[in-house]
Amino acid sequence: MTHAIGERSALCDLLDRLGPDAPTLCTGWTTYDLAAHLVLRERRPDAMAGIGIKPLAGYTASVQSGLKARHPYPELVGLVRRPGGVYGLLPALDEAVNALELFVHHEDVRRAQPSWEPRELPADLEQLIWKRVATGARLMLRKAPVGVALHRLGGGVALGGPRGGARVEVTGQAAELLLFCFGRQRHARVELTGDPEAVTRLREAALGL
């Protein structure tokens, strides 16, 4: 089983268990909204651009709302369970593109619920996550207001943010550093050290892709 398949299955099990109205870490989104987003991302390439390009966001939001209007929640979750579009035809592409996307959204649901705790991840998934953090830190932290040094527990350092001025050291497991870089700073189990004002600015910054 690939990591994409494992995260997809676990996320959908959790979505089924929580129902359509549970909160997520995605601002303003319930579990219903997140399920619609995942279906759109895989099955509506015409609307994908608006996920990252603001002038097109209105169309994307309209398509996402339309998916909710046309599909009951259990049906949407069922669509998420099966890789859609090109990902359904190419399992290797599903793994390469979706494994960490699904991991992050799985945590978006888990960590929005009470009494959550970090999962103990397989070593190969932790290594895959660290590879993404190490190679993508500059991109994910491009909006950071201060310099950032990511320290992986067990070894490894990645840098991002402005190259000059104040710098904040962020230490944690690879998965926690990924969530931090994806804009989930307040729900990532990491230790931040540095100038208190710089730490506060980094915690409140809009990070991510």
UniProtKB/TrEMBL annotation:
<dbReference type="InterPro" id="IPR017519">
    <property type="entry name" value="CHP03085"/>
</dbReference>
<protein>
    <submittedName>
        <fullName>TIGR03085 family metal-binding protein</fullName>
    </submittedName>
</protein>
<dbReference type="InterPro" id="IPR017517">
    <property type="entry name" value="Maleyloyr_isom"/>
</dbReference>
<dbReference type="InterPro" id="IPR034660">
    <property type="entry name" value="DinB/YfiT-like"/>
</dbReference>
